[in-house]
């Protein structure tokens, strides 16, 4: 006759004994490991920014906010444009008021809490605009630090955030060396540029690329040698941001200046 | 001896409970998929969720269908590169509900490019620009300039109205 105590013991042993190897199979599946080694993707999205063409009109930021439903007046944005003004005394002044949503319509530099800085025209040695966005890193630290698998890389190289899976811990916001991540005020989940995944996967271009009248922003497929963007990346001198971090950013810059961080 | 084994049973029970909960809580499509262990952990269905988002900016190619005249106006003008929706807002919902589309006549829209900034070695310095403090500060640009082709004289329809 089996006692209740004995029954409980044996049942637990059985469940535990069955569950452990089942879980083990899930975590170490050699077939999946093999799949990881092959690279079947025919598409790898990359971005090319020509800083020499950008005029700081901010149409890209506006289009991005509307296309991706980032609350228009909240001080967050998936992409932004920075202005750099280098003066004769060697100082570098930067700003990006409201992420440049309304463009740069004043000479004065917005120093956030410290008011506006007027610079005399004759003191300027160089000035230029630099659009920024998520770099869709090849080695994305934001994915590595996400404890729940809400941030991930798609086979075509775009890093996406699963809004229903994100627990809002903020590790990715801290982990991204480019500071492109923020919390979406409505969805309460980590948010960032995803190259307009809903557009590029339909064969369209991202909203900012369409909106830029000066061709400063372009998007392409680096796996396609005929792609005009790929050709430029392969044949011209392009730079990436913070190369020393080893994140292998996939947003390339033409005409990059040493002041850009 | 049994009192020695008891903690082990408790531990096993805890492991078993966690594994059973995992079975229930983690969706079937959660895994590493094509991208592998390093950066691949995710819910496959989320890729589709993102793909299914509605496209709002339809681009000029969509506007041409009904507004060929406006397209021809702008095509050979210095404004040719500006897509319609930069000034009129995203076309989603148009033409079904025409009021969703804006007609932005504001000065603020034009000075994005046409307020002169003294940046000679930037493309911005090369754009024809005004000083908004002295160039008719009270007027909307469209009163004198026809935005679909700034080289042409303004229609001044609005001013007469
Ligand atoms: S730029 Fe930042 S958010 Fe984008 S993939 Fe790299 S680490 Fe992640
Ligand atoms: S739309 Fe183009 S030119 Fe205007 S700010 Fe953006 S990148 Fe620069």
From TrEMBL, chain A:
Top-level taxon of the source organism: Bacteria
4Fe-4S ferredoxin-type domain span: 45-75, 125-156, 157-186
Record flagged with keyword NAD: no
Cited Pfam families: Fer4_11, Fer4_2
A Gene Ontology molecular function term of the record: 4 iron, 4 sulfur cluster binding
InterPro entries, A to Z: 4Fe4S_Fe-S-bd, 4Fe4S_Fe_S_CS, ET_IronSulfur_Cluster-Binding
Coiled coil (UniProt feature): none
Listed PROSITE patterns: 4FE4S_FER_1, 4FE4S_FER_2
Keywords of the record: 4Fe-4S, Iron, Iron-sulfur, Metal-binding
Protein name: 4Fe-4S dicluster domain-containing protein
Source organism of this protein record: Geoanaerobacter pelophilus
TrEMBL record, chain B:
Coiled-coil residue windows: none
InterPro entries from the UniProt entry: Cyt_c-552/4, Multihaem_cyt_sf
The Cytochrome c-552/4 domain, residue ranges: 53-89
Segments traversing the membrane: none
Secretion signal span: none
Protein name: Cytochrome c3 family protein
